[in-house]
Structure formats: structure tokens, C-alpha cells
Amino acid sequence: MKREPAALARSVHDLAVVGGGIYGICAAYEAARRGLTVCLVEQSDFVSATSSNSLKTVHGGLRYLQHGDLRRMRESIRERAMLLRTAPHLVRPLPFVIPTYGYGLRSQAVMRTALLLNDVIGFDRSAGVRVERRIPPGRVIGREEVRAMVPDLDSRGLTGGALWYDCQIANTERLALAYLRGAVESGAHCVNYVEATGLLLRDGQVHGLRAQDRLTGDPFDIQARAVLNAAGPWADRLLRTLPAARDVRRFHPSKAMNLVTRRLFGDHAIGFTVPTEFRDSDALLNKGTRLFFVVPWKQFSLIGTRHFAGDGDPDDFRITEDEIAVFLGEINTACPSAALSRKDVLTVLGGLLPEVPQAGPHEVQLVKHSRIYDHSSEGAAGLISAVGVKWTTARLTAEQAVDLVQRRLRPGDSRRLAERLLPGGDVEDLDGSPPQARAAAGVAPGVLRHLRENYGSTAREVLDYVRADPSLGTELVAGSSVIGAEVVFGVEREMAQRLEDVVFRRTELAAGGHPGLEALRRCAELMGSILGWSPEHREAEIGRTGAMWNITRPTCFASPRRP
């Protein structure tokens, strides 16, 4: 994948996608696979805003039973199975447990029924999935088994727990990049650091985009027969450029936060409840509690998701120290053994999700279904907006948006292509590497395992750099398993343009917090040698990337914002 912004203006595209988060990338992937000529522009780096904030889970919607929303469950179950089939190197089953209490809504009897319904509704949850990735049925477990997982759990009325399986994405950024590579290999022209500054309109018909290369400042036009606005929190900004723009918001933002901390429990994701006065207006059963999970992820725990009311310009998004303190207090109240303090928070992931609009101070009620808008009635025929709500169904929403585009451009053509593996998904050995592969790679076994889990079969392309220059097989930080070859691969093959692109999204260097100044310098030297950075430019990149942790203190990081 090469960054070639000038090529965007050389031809007329069937579809121009605005936004390089997971929704925009999946749309480009779906459209290009159907034979549409596609381009995608992203104002910052790919997957750098809300899509970078995730609990890294793919769930089948067990909790949707309280809403009676079987359609949403089926959609989630199908998409989860698809990810297991198409990206088995990145997506794998993960056991979840919620403690059960007493004889009410949180009892074993109620949860046993819920687990049975979940298994019946998800009868095809492992259809076509490789044996190593199949999802077992749920079951209830005993009181002592739960207490072994969480020793100081409140035992008053504790009867056991409900155990079921959803899935974990080992690396959401690499999953998005796999979709991006699939789109490019299917003919899409995708470019980061290009901002859509407006729409090209003639006689009420969209003809493309006005754009600007944010690295050079050069403006240019992109000709396209249709435009898909998948800009997430920035979707309304593009719509406000319409001549007859109405004061109608499609995205009402709320803050979403997940914490990366030291490892708390074992290999199960544990659900905890926090009392709240909030009542979900769509729920058939309101329990007066809010649920969060402590999820094992690598050598850390991911805890979330906590939502706060939010408004204002998405460029000004921040997670505050007060919000972090509130969430830490809730975690420690629900699980005293966690005993988390601010210094235990290695990374703060934050983003903006759409909520149901409400007046005044309130608890957040998220929009539950993705929404697709056709703006033909607003004097912009050919313009479509997609506002998504979660990672699990991003591809499905993108598919539905592309269906609408295809009906507009090619009436009567409803072709959909057969499912196929994402790049890297054809790895033969999902959970191990033969000794001969380790010997041939010239890297430590831990590094090879790390590459296989993040790149799948495309790890061999990263290892080609090590074979050409063995020094690139050295870990950038002891124990991280991230090697210099990944930095070079990110620049030469994945359009990384800034140091933050490599540190936060092409590699896992920042997974557990700040990797240290020496690691940043080594990355900057490798990138600078390829991109022609001066010593001053290198230092500026190091300073800017280091500042990404400085939301309220050096250990805190949220999704990088526009520079």
C-alpha cells in the first residue's frame, strides 16, 4: 500500500469514502470487491480516532436479550462468525463470566435460561469456523469456581456465575489494516492525511469532494459519482458544507473510555455491576445497574466501557482526570481486590460514540443500531452518510451502505461476492510455529509468536526485512516483541507517515503505555531514514508523539487528534 494523494484527482471514481475508521475502511473493502472504482480519504491516520478505542471484543449480543432484540443478536452472531472465519489469526474465543446472586434477575435460573436462549439463537455460531476457533456453549458454574477467579467477590447471596464465550480481537488496528489492504488489493485507492473540505455539487447532484493534502497543504478535487460520509464524530462537519444545510445533527457525541491496567485476574473476562439510577428506555428488563468488564489482554487488563456525556467539537475531545477517577472508584467499589490507583492506569483509550439526544445532565444512552442516511432530499443526490455504533457490526453496516450506493449507480445489479479470508488469515498454524520456521526467521520465538498473532501469514513479509538486515530483528523494547522490521514495514507497506502512526497503530509499542524515549528515538531514526527526515524533524516527531500521553498527565493517552 502506497500513499499517492495526487492519483486521487486523475480519474472519476464510482465512490469516494470519507473517513478511514473501521466503517469507512470496510465500506471501501466491500465496494472495491464488487467492482466499483473506489477511493478513501482520511483526515488523520487510519483508525486513529474512535475506532482506536475499543474493549477489543466481538460479541454476539447476549445482553440484547433484555431488549428482546433478536435481530440485533442474529446480526452480531453472524458477524462474529464471519470474523472468526476471515481473520482467525486476530480473532479468537474468550470466556466471559458474570457472578449470579439470589433468586431475582441476577440468579442462576435466569442466567441459565439466558445462556440457553443465546445458544439456540446462535445455533450457527461456529459455522465454517476452524476447529481451533469454534465457540463452546454457555453454562452456569458454581460458587467456589467463581470465587477462585475473584477471591474477594461479595459473597452475600452469591450462587455462582454464568459463563459464555464471545471473542477477542488481539489487535483492532491490525484487523482494520487487514481490511484496508484487502480494499487496496481489490483496486481501492486509499490515502491518509487527506481531508475532505467540502462537496462538489452540480444541479443537486454530488460529483465528488474538495480535498486538501494535510501534509503538504495542497488542495485538489476528487471526482466521484457518489460519496459515502463515514467520518464518525466529524460526519456533521461535512454535511454542514451543503448549501442548504439544515441544523440537523446525525451524530450526538458521548464519551467512551476504556482503561489499560496491570493484569488483575486470569484468563476469563469478568463482568461487574455498578448501581445506577439510569433506566434504559428500550429495555424490557431494567436492573438498575450498569455493567463493565475486566478483560484479559496480553499481559494487561482492559477495563470498560465507561460512558460520559459529551458535546462540542470532536477535535477538542479529552478524557479528564475527574472522569478517570470516577471510573476507578466504581471499579474498586465493585471489586475491592483490584485496588487500582491512578498509577496503575497504563493507558486511557477514549473516543466518541453516538448517543440518544437528551437535554441537561444525564447518564448516556447509546444509539443501538447503526444508521444510514440518503441525502437526496436535501439537495445532495449521491451523498450517503453512515453512523455506526460498534466494531462487531461495522462490516455489516458498511455492506448495507454500499448496497444503497450500488442501487443508485447500477440499478438491478445486486451482486455480492463470496466471503474470503482477509490478508493474513490463511495462516496454517494458528497457535504455534514449527521449529524450522523459528530457525529460518532469525528472530526469538517470542517475536515470531507476536508476528504470527498480529500479521498472520503476512508475517513472512515482515521477516523478509529481517533476512535482508538482521539488525531489524532486534526488539525495540526488551520484552515487547516489537522489532525494527515492523517499523520499516509500516512505512514502506502501510502508509505510516508520522511517528505516532507506527507507535500507536502499526505496532504494539504503546500497548502498555509509554515505551520510553529510547524506543521513540529508534523508531524515528528508522522512519527518518526512509522518509528523509532532518534531525529537527525527527525531534519534532518524538516530541509530538510523547505528548500523546499528556492529556492530563504523562501516563495518559487518548486517541490521537488532528494535529
Short précis:
With 563 residues, the chain is an alpha/beta fold. The protein has helices spanning 22-33, 70-86, 108-121, 143-149, 172-185, 235-239, 321-334, 394-409, 435-441, 445-455, 459-468, 484-494, 499-506, 517-531, 535-546; strands at 12-18, 38-42, 57-58, 91-101, 139-142, 158-169, 189-192, 194-202, 205-213, 219-229, 253-262, 269-275, 289-297, 300-309, 345-354, 371-374, 383-387. Strand 16 and strand 17 (383-387) form a beta hairpin.
CATH-derived architecture of the largest domain: 3-Layer(bba) Sandwich
User: Could you tell me how far the N terminus lies from the C terminus, measured between alpha carbons in angstroms?
Assistant: 23 Å
The name of the CATH superfamily of the largest domain reads: FAD/NAD(P)-binding domain
CATH topology annotation of the largest domain: FAD/NAD(P)-binding domain
Tally of helical segments: 15
The CATH class assignment of the largest domain is: Alpha Beta
Mean pLDDT: 91
Uncertain spans, ≥5 residues at pLDDT below 50?
552-563
Gross morphology: globular
Structural class: alpha/beta
Question: Radius of gyration in whole Å, from Cα?
Answer: 23 Å
Number of strands: 17
